[in-house]
Amino acid sequence: MDTARIVLVVMWVGITLYALLAGADFGGGAWDLLAGRSRTGMARRGLIERSIGPVWEANHVWLIFVLVLLWTAFSGVFASVMSTLYIPLTLAAIGIIARGTAFAFRKAATELWQRRLFGGAFAVSSVLTPFFLGTAAGAIASGRVPPGLARGDILTSWLNPTSLLGGVLAVMVCVYLAGAYLCDDAVEAGRPDLAEWFRVRGLVAAVLIGAVALGGIAVLRWDAPGLFTGLTHRGLPLVVAGAVLGVGSLVLLWRRVYPLVRATAMLGVITILWGWALAQFPVMLPPSLTYRQAAAEPSVLTATLVVTAIGAALIAPSMAWLLAVQRRALRDTGTPE
Amino acid sequence: MATWQSVLAAAGPATPADLVAARTQMALSLGWHIVLACLGVGMPALMLIIEWRGIRTGDADYTRLARQWAKAIGVLFAAGAVSGTILSFELGLLWPGMMGTYGQVIGLPFAAEGIAFFIEAIFLGIYLYAWDRVPPRAHLLSGIPVLVAGTLSAFLVVCANAWMNAPRGFALRDGVVNRVSPWRAMFNPAVPHETLHMIVAAFMVAGFLVAGVYAAGMLRGHRDRYHLLGFLVPFTLAAVFTPIQILVGDFAGKRVATLQPTKLAAAEALFRTGAGAPLSVGGIVTGDRLRYSIEIPYGLSLLVGHNPGTVVQGLDAVPRAARPPVMIVHLAFDMMVGMGFLLLLLSAWLGYTWWRRRELPRSPWFLRAAALSGVFAVVAVEAGWTVTEVGRQPWTVYGHLRTSDAVNPAPGLWTGFVVVALVYTVLTVVTLYVMRLIRWSERPVAPQERDRTREPEPS
Ligand code: HDD
Ligand code: HEM
Ligand code: HEM
């Protein structure tokens, strides 16, 4: 494997972790929106807040990590994507501001109206941010971001069937992931009744995702034939695995085997992301710019990998400690009343 | 390989309005982030000092302060993190012309910074959530990585900025970068003065701002020990750094004289190259002259070369199109230096009365000025960055890439700027409001067992 390919894989691992960890955080925000009126939703919101409280900052850093790797190792791709897709990405950035601050501020708020206001901003931006990121992914996958500064159409590049499909799927997958995590966390915190509430809605979300994904096949075939071919040939094993995991996760949720729901939901997301990557490999910007053409000089790639490796060695144990503290906090504080 | 990259340069130019919008948006978001970044670097230090004093003395006031500051850090960190994330987006959204070509050259410090952020975020999470769950000393230790990583991230990001001022570590052929040496690019000649000056500035801003909150409290009559400690500890830290900062600033000036003589000439509004250059304070630039300024004869030559005969390069050495906006840079420079000396005076005042009488100066003017000292320090930082960034114009990468070639050529950047400006306005108001809430509330950011009874009731 050449160094460029290693960096590419590391970057994709970063994207996967961002989708799994921050994706669940975004989903948590969406659940917050659905959690019901102030009084009835209190316990549910409490659980959401407690589940994502200590880790969201760390989860969120994955996005920065991916951006930085992209601009260091594939500078031209970064410039092309950011310049053509500046509208959805500016909107996603604004969503990130609103979401992060509102969530932190809500914890400091004392009055109900303040909590409602911050909670509302948190919830709405939790839906919009993954949506816009999803449209950007759709734009790249369907070959609408040509290499060069703002060479693509600044509107139709992300306002098209594949992008909309990407956006909607991103939001729904976040919701499902969070639902799976929350069921598990609710049982752990000794509130099976809360788990039940999330479970029913998680089931609905799972069925909807299945329907959208099936419809999506038709959309891709018509709107992004290149991607469609990749997904149905090289990416096929992973796409099939994703479908199987999705159905499996639904069944497990039905039967309340929460820890396994969580695992299958995560694996499902992983297979879809890697299926997409495999479908277009070695092309980075379809139709034709490959990662090898786009890669930085070897000296840069090596230095980046060295720094990343040192970082990983430092981060892994610290992260494990943080997660342990979080688990303990959840158990100690017990049920959110 | 060199073929496809040509598209990264050959885009049509942005309209002048879009260029101004992009620059203003960048300045706004960086100017916002830097205040939070200073707090993110400096406040962990204050928090650790006060927690350590609390453990040593068993004094409840120290412990109360430590918890209060930890709460504030929890909120400020979130605002710092999101505003920093926006910057990473904006580097690409607004300046793809720079990132597409030079992203690989300055990527390394940013990649290292990403690691530092991780460490900072993780340990802050641990610190906030583990407070009552581990022994006090272990808890104190868990806060140290937050401080180290915060300072390191400031160092690293300023390395990237220093590279824009003193670009090294690459060669150019037909507009395509090659023979990149990322380590040489990262450790460029502008690193020592910029990073040192910035890190000291961060400690000053954090110290004076926090002290200002308690000075305001004392002015309102809260003359207890809790407020006195809350004022003295951060103020002392910042006051110690103030004279150091002025020395570092002097060092920065000398470095800029060799690395970017045009920037120094603009900062001093020196139009004519020559020996015996005066130091001009204030004034108005009209045409190629500075009027109504206070001149210290030979001042600049003495500062740059310790000799009245030192030749200092003026703005006449470069064509007009290669000069930065002189008036802005000169005023910003004077503002920074002025604030530096104002803060020095304030620090000396307290130092004197404390040395003589072990008490605060009796004049109410001391507390009034101290309440504003944080604002002065923030003004100094914003002014300093104006000198650095505007003084680099018309270049984004000094001597290599003009700002007008760095900007995104997509139409409508202007609209984006308006939206982002509105978002920042709201964000500013809300952040200040929440900081006020925190002052009055006793709710912790991370709930601990004993706080469970204090959850707010729905009304
Ligand atoms: C508390 C803040 C503060 C204070 C009191 C001062 N500065 Fe400063 N200055 C900064 C905060 C700052 C800064 C915001 O941190 C800058 C922007 C970029 C940098 O490296 O530091 C800066 C930049 C900066 C530069 C430009 C560096 C470059 O572009 O490479 C010079 C020449 C000085 N300063 C000189 C001084 C002098 C002679 C001071 C004497 C009083 C002084 N500064 C006080
Ligand atoms: C001199 C300038 C800067 C300094 C000193 C600085 C420092 C910091 C610090 C200390 C933090 C941690 C947040 C906190 O504790 O509140 C932070 C966050 C951040 N900064 Fe900056 N920064 C600077 C400029 C920039 C620039 C230009 C960028 C973008 C390229 C940037 C990107 C970020 C990012 C992405 C974060 C979020 C990290 C997280 O989620 O924890 N910063 N910055
Ligand atoms: C945090 C403190 C900083 C402040 C307050 C600041 C301020 C500014 C200002 C005022 C401008 C607009 C220049 C003009 O009006 O002509 C600007 C531009 C810019 N700054 Fe900074 N800057 C800071 C740090 C950084 C850092 C650390 C980077 C690192 C990469 C950076 C990258 C840029 C870029 C790319 C531009 C646009 C190009 C240009 O106009 O020259 N800045 N900044």
Describe the secondary-structure layout.
The complex is a heterodimer of chains A (337) and B (459).
Chain A: H1 3-34, H2 42-52, H3 56-73, H4 75-84, H5 86-108, H6 112-141, H7 161-188, H8 192-223, H9 225-232, H10 236-254, H11 258-280, E1 283-285, E2 289-290, H12 291-294, H13 298-333
Antiparallel strand pairs in A: 1-2
Helix pairs in contact in A: 1-2, 1-3, 1-6, 1-7, 1-11, 1-13, 3-4, 3-13, 5-6, 6-7, 7-8, 7-11, 8-9, 8-10, 9-11, 10-11
Chain B: H1 16-57, H2 60-94, H3 96-129, H4 136-165, E1 171-173, E2 176-178, H5 182-186, H6 191-219, H7 225-259, H8 261-267, E3 274-275, E4 279-281, E5 284-286, E6 289-291, E7 294-296, H9 299-305, E8 311-312, H10 326-357, H11 364-390, E9 395-397, E10 401-402, H12 403-406, H13 413-440
Antiparallel strand pairs in B: 1-2, 3-8, 4-7, 5-6, 9-10
Bound molecules: CIS-heme D hydroxychlorin gamma-spirolactone and protoporphyrin IX containing FE (HEM) (2 copies).
The site of CIS-heme D hydroxychlorin gamma-spirolactone has 26 residues of chain B, from helix 6, helix 7, helix 10 and helix 11.
